[in-house]
Each structure stands twice: as structure tokens, then as C-alpha cells.
């Protein structure tokens, strides 16, 4: 049905385009038997006119290519197929092999947001308009790393708008503070303590500490609290308590050769028999790798090879 | 009978043959079943899967994959109280010979032992591998090697037996909180005596210090080592103390170069587990470290003595089924404590059969008539067996059993 109406519209376009001027008014004729319909059926069993009343051709067919698009679509607007000169298709076809439905009377296209009001040209115009209120971009911030270096702390907040009696949203108070651990001067014991305090808020893959604060009613309070938290975390990590020295090898996250029982065993062995210090070094590396990386063919084979060399065994 | 057959032959030869064959069959049923030819009786040159060398000291990589025979008298001395896994032992009874495959892990350890500097501390070798790959069999092979080279053998066939199926347990009278396994200790001493009977007569093996068992029973310094063994066997009360004394003496004697000791313990990881079936008199379940028999064997696997070797195996089967750790690697099975005790050691892996070993094994089974099904001997059949068993020695045994 729609196809037919399209063909009909094209025929009308053809008719109109041959006219001298496009600004001719259409003549409104409400009589049943007039116009083209008069040509078709007669009598009681007249055929219903196809496609309904005569329509103007869609605007998109008359749009020049070099038109000013931001003027055509100045603001966010529901998709209007006749105003968009693009053969857009959206949705699942009724039959498997058919093309997706076209843009006319396509509810899916109308439901989704479109950004036709934010084409590069439009954005450039916005920027030009705002430019006189802006300061220049800092010259030293040429890449991501420079941004991280000079602005290590990132604060994220979210604003919500409501078209209801109240414009407030309780979620607007949430503040997320993100900082890279490498930008803080922590290492060894202090870094370990910091990570224990921060726990799952640290992502080892991105090296980011993320602190989400929502305990206060206003955003400003949460922001201040997040800054306070960061300060406290850092200073607490730097402090060393007396009970921290009670940390035993059992509490270590990774195997440490220096404090291990294996090292003591090798040392006591070295008293009785000659052990090459190079071989001890290699052996300790293999053992550390085995313990930290986990046991598998590779690490065990490595350990075996170095143990053999250390203990002075070889195959003929 | 014969006349009739001749007459029939004129009419149809087939019937003659049938009659004759019937006579033959009937005749053989009265003769006793022919026994499998033993390899030692075979006057023909040995098949390729058998090794001429029956002495482990002379085994080399050229013998890899071949089967060698253990003399019945040696088997009786070494393995009477355990050492060869029961399934394989039954197989040996079926085959009427004890043959073992010479495999890479055993050859490797023997190589190391041949080139060891025995002035250095005793090296610990840890055998590990998936279930059924031949850890216990390798240990049996090495036991034979040690026996041939006059090592004093300290052998625990399967340590978990003590903790899972103890013969009898009682609270230790001398040590607080510990539990004795007196009968198991006596059994082990008998096993030790049996394995080392030829060496215990050596006058060099004499006690280095006085050992006091009770007010009236003392073993003086200079007495033969066999006296401690006898004391332990006869006086059940002192059996565990005797084991402790014996193993300490062996360490000292080895240091003094009066003997060399080979310690072989199967299922070593049980010593560092935390469960047993043993209970105190107050019905409290205890871990292995509170059992008196554990400490002497853990002690002898330390590296504070020289002139010997320690071969230990770790197996997931050593644990109770509920506590199994589903790993075959030594660190996982020994745990932190066990690994720290054994470190540094040489981990030796036992693997599934290689193509050559698999081929030799199938040939051996065919030779011994373990596999009778003709399809199994074919190329396709072997591939099927290799796939079904994944070339795992134990699985191959099970898979070929019905054939």
C-alpha cells in the first residue's frame, strides 16, 4: 500500500516539477466525484481513492545538497522522516530476506534519540559562540600522561533533571573520586598498608583507586569528605604502628626469598658443603617464581634444573 | 577306530580330518595345561621388549622401555612386605614372573646417584605424577638398585596405611599427647630386617651410642645394629623408640662412612596432612605429627646427614578421598610445611607411556597372553587401546584386562 502511495507521490512530483513555479497553491476540492477520482470508478460501486487526499511531496526531495543543515534541524527533535534526506532503515524485517523497514512511519526511529542537531557543523557553531568565554587550553597538557601528571585526581558527579514539581534528585549527591596509585609516593610497606586499607576499591589492571562517597546529603559535603578520605588514607599508610612489626612470613602476599625458611635451609647446607653463590641466586629466583607464579610444568622444570645445578648433580 | 577312519576317508576327506582332530583334542584334555614359557627358560634370543640386563646398576637409556626380570629370591627379600603395588603383584603372579619396565624416571635418578658426591648432604628426590604413571614402580626399581649397591634400605611401602588402616593404636606412655602404633612399628622393623638381612651381619654396622629402653634394657655402644632391630621386634612396647634409635644410628653411621643409606618412602605427603583415623584414648582425632612413628621418618628425610639418598613420592591418593587436593604437583601435595621441609629437592616426574613404551608394553602383554583378542594386537586395535587408556600404564592394565 505504501509502495503504491510512494509511486503515486513520485508521479505527483513529476507533475509538479514540470510546473512553472513551485509556489502554486493546491486547489481544495472536497467533492467526491472530482479530480482524478472522477476518472476512476462510476456509480454506486465507486472505487475508494487510493492513498487518501493529495499530499505535497516530502520536503527531503526538494532539499539542495549544500543547504545549511543546522538551520533545518536547529534543536533536538523527534525523527521526522520527511525532513531528513537520508535513506535510513531501522528494525527487523517482517520476512527474513526483506530489507529492514524504511523510515516512513517507523516507530523505532522515532523512539530512539537522534543527534541530527549535533552535526559537526552545528557543533562548530556552538563552539564559536562559546569561544569568547573560554580561556586557552594549557600548553603543557599535550597528552593523557601530562593530564594525569598535573591533574591526578578525577572527580565525577552526575546531574539529574526532572520535569516535576521538584527538580531535586538524591542521586546527585554521589561523588566518585579516582586517582592512580602510581601518582602517590607510596612503596613497599606504605603501599601494602594503603592497599589493605583501600581493599576492593583498587583495580590492579588500571592502577586506579576509586572512592565513591554518598554519605552526606549534599554534593559539596561529599566532595569535601572524599578529599578528606584521600588525605587520611595517605597519612595513615605513612604511619607505622608497633603491631605492624608482628607481620610474619605467613602473612606475606608473595614469597620472599630473604625471610623464607628455604633460605635458612640453603644457608645451613652451605656450612657443610660448597655451594656456588651464583647457583644459589639462580635457585632462589626459580623458587620465588615457583611460589609466586604457581606450580606448573614450566616453573617446576626450571626449579628442577636449578636445584640440580645447585646440588651438583648432572646426567652422564 | 583307526580302521573306521580309513574307510570314511575314501568317501570324504573332511570327515576323516574331523574324526582325527576329535581324537587329538580328547587326548590333550588329559594332559595338564601347558605353562607359559618363562623368560629365563627361553633358550632363544630375547625378544626386543625384554632386557638382557637384569641388574639395575647396568641399566641405561638403551634399555629404556624394555622389561627386565627380578629374581624370585630378590623379590622375596625386598618386596615380601610391600613395595610392588598390589595390582601389579597379582599380574606378576598371573605371568609367573616379576618383570618391570625400565623407564626414564628411574634411569634418571640412578644416573644422579651414580655421579653423586657422597660427601655432600643426602639429596632428596621427589617423584610426582598423575595417578597410575608409575611412581611406586619406579621406587621398586630404585629399591632393587639400592639393594644391589649395598645400600642400607629404609623403605616405607605406603605410608598412608599407618594412618588410614592402623593395626592398633594406643596413647604413648612416655610422650604427652602422642599416640603409638606399636604393631605397625614392629611390622616395619620386620620388613627392615628382611630387606637388610645381608647387611646387618656386617660388623661395621655397630651402634654409636648407648640406648636405654628401660631401667633394665640397654643397648650399649658398639653393639651390632641388629640388636636394636631385634629389641624392637621382640619388645612391642619399645618398637617405636627402636625405630627412632635405628634411624638416628643409620644417619650417624652414614656420616661416618660405615654404611650408605637409601631412604625410600611412598606417599610421603601424608606426614604433612592434618587427618588420620587414629584417635587418642579420649577419642580425639589426631594429625600425623602427633603419631610417634611419623617423626623418625620425617627426620631421616632432612638434609643433615651425608652418604645416602632420599627418594620420596607424593601422591594425591595418600589423602582421604574427601581431602584430596586434585593436583599431582609436589608443592600442592606437600603443602607449605612439607615443601619447606623438603626444599631443596629434585622433583622427578613420571609420565604416561611414550609411543615406544606403549608398544613394548603391548608386546609384553601379548607375549604373556594377557591380551588374547587378535584385534587388540592389530594396528587399529593398538590405537584404540592407546586412546582408551590415554597411554596411562595403570589404565592400560585395566583396559586390557578383559581382552
Can you describe what's shown?
The complex is a heterodimer of chains A (316) and B (403). Chain A has 316 residues and is mostly helical. Chain A is 39% helix and 6% strand. The longest helix of chain A has 20 residues, at 219-238. Chain B is 44% helix and 11% strand. Chain B has 17 helices and eleven strands. Chain B has helices spanning 2-11, 13-29, 72-79, 86-95, 104-114, 135-148, 160-164, 182-195, 197-200, 225-234, 239-255, 294-300, 330-342, 355-367, 374-377, 379-389, 393-400; strands at residues 67-70, 98-101, 123-129, 151-156, 170-171, 179-180, 211-212, 218-219, 260-265, 308-313, 346-350. In chain B, helix 1 packs antiparallel against helix 2, helix 5 runs parallel beside helix 6 (135-148) and helix 10 packs antiparallel against helix 11 (239-255). The chains are: A mainly alpha (316), B alpha/beta (403).
Q: What does this entry show, briefly?
A:
Chain A is mainly alpha-helical and 316 residues long.
Task: Note the run of SSEs of chain A as H and E.
Answer: HHHHHHEEHEEHHHH
The largest sheet of chain A is: 4 strands, antiparallel
Rough shape of chain A? elongated
Total count of strands of chain B: 11
How much is the radius of gyration of chain B in Å? 26 Å
Structural class of chain B: alpha/beta
Hey, roughly how much beta strand do the residues of chain A contain? 5-15%
Count of helical regions of chain A? 11
As a whole number of angstroms, the C-alpha radius of gyration of chain A is: 38 Å
Strand-and-helix sequence of chain B, N→C? HHEHHEHEHEHEEHHEEHHEHEHEHHHH
Low-pLDDT regions of chain A: 16-20
DSSP helical segment count of chain B? 17
Helix content of chain B: 40-55%
Strand order of the largest sheet of chain A: 1-2-4-3
The class by helix and strand makeup of chain A works out as mainly alpha
